[in-house]
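Late entry, evening session. Most of the bench is empty. Finally got around to the prediction I had been postponing all week. Sequence below, unchanged from the version circulated by S.P.
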Amino acid sequence: MNKKIKNRVKEISDYILQTNQTIRQTAKKFGISKSTVHKDIQERLKEIDINRYNQIEEIFKNHIETRHILGGQSTKIKYQQMKQNMEG
């Protein structure tokens, strides 16, 4: 693995651990695809630093467990705003 990729993997993992961001948010921040972030974490980070990989996996597991709640809240807000716009 070349040095540029290793540095990116370390930067991405540092960012996720510090901010608790999702793959999508991380990809947007770094200007790369979600697939690249996913591959960097799932494959490359596992080779570089297994402890850091395990910490990030816990963060992502938490995101998966709570995403249905966040999605429901977003939908509720969307329809409340639509209702307000129709009323006045």
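Two things to note before I forget:
The chain has one domain: 3-87.
The mean pLDDT is 91.
Will write this up properly tomorrow.
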